[in-house]
Design a protein that fits this description.
Blueprint lengths: L6 H16 L18 H5 L5 E6 L2 E7 H31 L4 H22 L2 E6 L1 H10 L11 E10 L4 E8 L4 H16 L9 H11 L11 H11 L6 H6 L1 H6 L3 H10 L6 H26 L2 H7 L10
Antiparallel strand pairs: 1-2, 2-5, 3-4, 4-5
Length: 319
């Protein structure tokens, strides 16, 4: 087993590639060969690109061309890859310099979190916090508002393709969930959908079960989800910045920079609840989601874009 062929990451990669094909995406970049020439999805919301309709209170739709949608996806995915890789490098540097385990865990968490966001983007799902400034711009751009209102907050967007007009329609709706909780709840749904028809053998089922547990943000959750684990280490238990954190996170610090070992830990662990298992589960999430992100990057982004956005010595996912 290597970091490039973790079984669950491979299943997810194939699932997302099929969805990519269903979205009518080709992987081309509309003739642009440099990343800085492209616009990201947040740039589109904050600009004059596309047509905006307010459908009801706190629900709107933006219509953009296929080329613009595809270029935005490539732009965001490539920059996301670079960001996640840099965070992984920071994890290694902090460990080498004996940094606080709480900071190592928080940074590792963000590797998994942003990898999940990018995977959702490939599926045509977008999680954005829209502030008052962007909301005002969207409202002013709207071709019709019908006395409806938009408020700042976390929005979930869902894309659909219109083959007749060759355009994408992204429908956004405000949610009550916070950004991290919404991202993991969406990821939980993707995991459930992906493996509904896939059969996992033996110990891989334990990995999936643990990932489903820690991405579950609903009222029926059995253990702390990934966002709650991050909050425990980063906010609610300051003692974890000291010796208590070093003891609890000793195995985590070994696993988080070794995706294969983290995955094997997920195959073997059976205990559902303990502070150490909870902590190590973050390393498992880093292993699966960041390696998934790299697999998708290698498979769907044009080499011209990849070559322009990453330095030659870029290190990612334990390579």
């Amino acid at each position: 087993m290597t970091s490039s062929n973790l079984k669950i990451s491979g299943y997810l990669s194939r699932y997302l590639k099929r969805k990519w094909a269903l979205l009518q995406l080709t992987g081309s970049c509309g003739g642009n060969d440099r990343l800085e020439q492209l616009e990201g999805f947040r740039d589109i919301l904050d600009s004059d690109w596309g047509d905006v309709d307010i459908l009801e209170n706190n629900r709107f739709r933006i219509i953009i061309s296929k080329d613009l949608y595809e270029n935005a996806l490539i732009h965001d995915y490539a920059l996301g890859y670079s960001r996640i890789g840099k965070q992984f490098e920071c994890v290694k540097v902090m460990l080498e310099n004996k940094g606080a385990v709480a900071w190592v865990l928080t940074t590792g968490y963000y590797c998994a979190f942003y990898s999940a966001i990018e995977a959702l983007r490939v599926l045509g799902r977008f999680v954005h916090y829209l502030d008052d400034c962007i909301i005002r711009k969207l409202f002013n751009r709207a071709s019709r508002s019908n006395n409806l209102a938009l408020e700042a907050g976390t929005y979930i967007g869902t894309a659909s393709f219109d083959a007749i007009t060759n355009e994408y329609r992204i429908t956004y709706a405000k949610t009550r969930s916070r950004h991290h909780v919404l991202t993991w709840s969406q990821t939980h749904e993707v995991l459930s959908n992906c493996f509904r028809r896939e059969t996992l053998d033996g110990e891989d089922r334990y990995v999936l079960d643990r990932l489903l547990r820690v991405t579950n943000t609903g009222s029926d959750k059995k253990i702390a989800n990934l966002s709650e684990i991050r909050n425990t280490w980063n906010y609610t238990q300051p003692a974890l910045y000291g010796p208590a954190g070093e003891r609890r996170g000793a195995e985590f610090c070994k696993l988080v920079v070794d995706p294969v070992s983290a995955y094997r830990w997920g195959q073997q662990v059976r205990s559902a609840r303990s502070p150490e298992v909870e902590t190590n589960t973050v390393a498992l999430a880093v292993s699966v989601f960041s390696c998934l992100h790299k697999q998708l990057y290698d498979q769907i982004l044009p080499s011209s874009i990849a070559g322009n956005c990453l330095p030659k010595d870029h290190v990612f996912c334990g390579e």
